[in-house]
Amino acid sequence: MTMVLIAALLTLLQEESPGGVRPALLFLARHQREDGSWGDPPASCSCARQVERTAVPEDPAEIERLVRELGQDGAERRARASERLRGFGQRALPYLLEGARDPDAEIRTRCAELRRDLLPYAPGAGDVELTSLAVLAFLQAGYTPYSKDLQDGLCFGTVVKKALKWLHARQQETGACDAKDPVADTVAALAFSECFGMIGGGLYKAAAEAAVGRVAAREARDTRAMIWKGMMFKSAELSEVPVDRKLAEANLDALRERPADSLQRAGLCILSIFVKKKKGDPDLGGIHLLDPLRLDAETLYLGTMASFQFDGPHGPHWSVWKPQYQGRLLPLQVRGEKGCERGSWTGVGFRGRLQATTLNAMNFEFYYNH
Q1: Among 47-56, 89-98, 249-258, which is the least confidently predicted range?
Q2: Higher pLDDT, 87 or 48
Q3: Which of 355, 296, 353 minimizes the C-alpha distance to 328?
Q4: Do 312 and 245 sit in the same domain of this protein?
Q5: Which of 46, 51, 242, 360 has a Cα-to-Cα distance from 315 of 20 to 30 A?
Q6: What is the C-alpha separation between 359 and 370, in angstroms, rounded?
């Protein structure tokens, strides 16, 4: 995303296919709450029970024992435990998440590594962030509040309109939609900016200017907030929402000072391209350290944008990255004609499922559009 969508390949999204964007958007539309937001599932929905049931391993005691084995002496013993845990697949994620907080440094490190092996996954988020991400997924697919066509009897335009109405109702005079959560507040500002850039309109213009202005003036203090803030700056620039370029440069400088991990590298790559517009910049060296087969949903989405901006659509890096991430995501999407969770990707709990589905849908949208 982070660029105003001028035309969408809607015919691709409407084609019947075993997976990808359309089933993901249908999953989101089915699970939108009556007030227009996303968060906990609607009271009448059975999906939450199904999600919890599929997340519970057949032998939780065995998984817990294997997690403890990761901290034992003996490389072979630890390797056997790691392989057994990989065999449980994403059912092991809740236990690995807990292990990543273990007092034992060995267990923490190895659980974190295994989690990356079993991703894409998402930990979940609050209502404002989830609703904003869902709005972005529909906008990036080309659906605006004015879209009228139906998908399996659902009007995606109505879905987007209700969600934006919910976000706007939460917006305070300061421009904040969630003053206590900087990331959620920033993703909401990005959603307003993208919508205004696509369709204009007085209501969306005022909401975008207020939200962007607040986020731009506030210092981001962690990696995620800095990255989403940088994407908001780029969207605002393209949508012609007033923004001070010096603030975008300062945000990029602050991101350079954050600990270097996959998320920081992916964010640094894409924001360096957006701010400096120099593909030979040293910040882009980190793109070669990113492995699409070992990234969580959010970092994978950022890495995909960075890879395309780096040398797409015909460069060697993008040519390798594109089939790898598509080949990784599609088999993990829930298939089948029945089942409330069809079209989604798993995460930690229902909120994690929503977050993973929005991010992975946008990744596929990027694939189809490039």
Answers
A1: 47-56
A2: 87
A3: 296
A4: yes
A5: 360
A6: 17
**pLDDT tens-place string over residues 287-337:** 999 998 878 889 999 999 999 989 888 899 999 999 998 888 888 888 877
Q: For residue 73, give the amino acid letter.
A: D
On whether both 93 and 230 belong to a single domain, the answer is no
pLDDT of residue 255: 97
Judgement on whether residues 141 and 259 belong to the same structural domain of the protein = yes
Residues 90 and 138 in one domain: no
Alpha-carbon distance 128 to 41, whole Å?
A: 15
167 and 159 Cβ atoms separated by less than 8 Å: no
How far is it, in rounded angstroms, from Cα 318 to Cα 322?
A: 6
Q: What is the DSSP string of 336-356?
A: SSS-TTTT----SHHHHHHHH
**In this structure, what are the phi and psi dihedrals at residue 361, rounded to the nearest 5 degrees?**
-60, -45
Number of domains in the chain: 2
> Closest Cα partner for 220 from 204, 206, 232?
232
Residue 15: what residue type?
E
Q: What's residue 14's pLDDT? A: 43
pTM above 0.70, yes or no: yes
Could you tell me which of 166, 174, 158, 90 has the C-alpha nearest to residue 129?
166
What pLDDT band is residue 10 in, cutting at 50, 70 and 90?
very low
Residues 177 and 143 reside in one and the same domain: yes
CA distance 68 to 84: 12
What is the overall mean pLDDT for the chain? 86
- Expressed as residue numbers, the domain containing 66 is 57-118
Structure token pair of residue 308: 């395309």
Instruction: Judge residue 313's burial from the number of C-beta atoms within 10 Å of its C-beta, 0-12 exposed, 13-18 middle, 19 or more buried.
Output: exposed
